[in-house]
Amino acid sequence: MSNQTKTVISAAVNSQRFNHFITALIIFNSILIGLETYPSIYLPNKNVFFILDLIILFIFTIEIILKIFVDGKHFFKNGWNIFDFSIIAGSIILYNTPFVGVLRIFRVLRALRTITSVPSLRRIVSALFMAIPTIGSVILLMFIIFYVYAVIGTAFFSEIEPEYFGSLELTFITLFQIFTLESWASGVFRPIFAEIQWSWLYFVSFIIIATFIMINLIVGEIVNNAQKISEEVEKDTSEIKDDTVEIKELRKEVKELKDLLKQHVLKGE
């Protein structure tokens, strides 16, 4: 295949229209998978769903093949491309096998391909992955806080509320419920507060430290990483814009040189 043909295919695959088409197809496929959970809709139209799924899988396969053809070995150097390839390859390999449950997982995972086709979503997920080391440290700190409060809670409240604080394991579960702010006041706090007046210090301090401060640390780290990625993208974009301006100026200078040469030639004649 000639270089010209490869250039045409590359331009088509990397065009906005093609990306928008794939994104729309991913969304349509996700809606179909959701509709399959309704027996009243799925069972009467089972053959239609099957044919549409085959067509969508065929288009996705062609997309991956074209991208591999255009990018060559560089295709597998991109983590998002490997993610797309794994989902489509898994869907094809498991299509005519008895592993229906695993196949359904791969079909549902196709919806996640929306992340790869929308740049803003890719930046958010990349920021999340960049924040993993810091999040790991925060989670370790949260575990220490949970452990300290679990020991205190079990020691002081086990006799009053054995259902919630009867053992260290139950206290951990109770603290997680309090951490999510789910019915902690009426279900857990008030019966203990009726017996021990100072217990509000235990619950309020835990909520402030674990829920508000720790969650804000995680969110703040993700936001900082997202800002870094946005700045890098903006920097790359500005460099491209500068290059475009330089190219325009060069074209202008070349045009002026051509005009000067023409005038010189005409004078010589």
Jot down its keywords.
Four Helix Bundle (Hemerythrin (Met), subunit A); 269 residues; single chain; Helix Hairpins; transport; mainly alpha; 13 helices; flat
Number of strands: 0
Query: Can you summarize the main beta sheet?
Result: none
Q: Which CATH class of the largest domain applies here? A: Mainly Alpha
Strand content: under 5%
Q: What is the H level of CATH, i.e. the homologous superfamily of the largest domain?
A: Voltage-gated potassium channels. Chain C
SS summary, helix count: 13
Report on the architecture of this protein:
The chain has 269 residues and is mainly α. The chain has two domains: 3-117, Voltage-gated potassium channels. Chain C (Four Helix Bundle (Hemerythrin (Met), subunit A)), CATH 1.20.120; 134-229, Helix Hairpins. Helices cover 84% and strands 0% of the residues. The chain is built from 13 helices and no strands. The protein has helices at 3-13, 16-35, 39-42, 46-71, 79-93, 100-109, 113-117, 119-130, 132-157, 162-165, 168-179, 184-195, 199-268. α4 (46-71) crosses α5 (79-93), α8 (119-130) packs across α13 (199-268) and α9 (132-157) runs antiparallel to α13. The longest helix has 70 residues, at 199-268. It is flat and about 100 Å long.
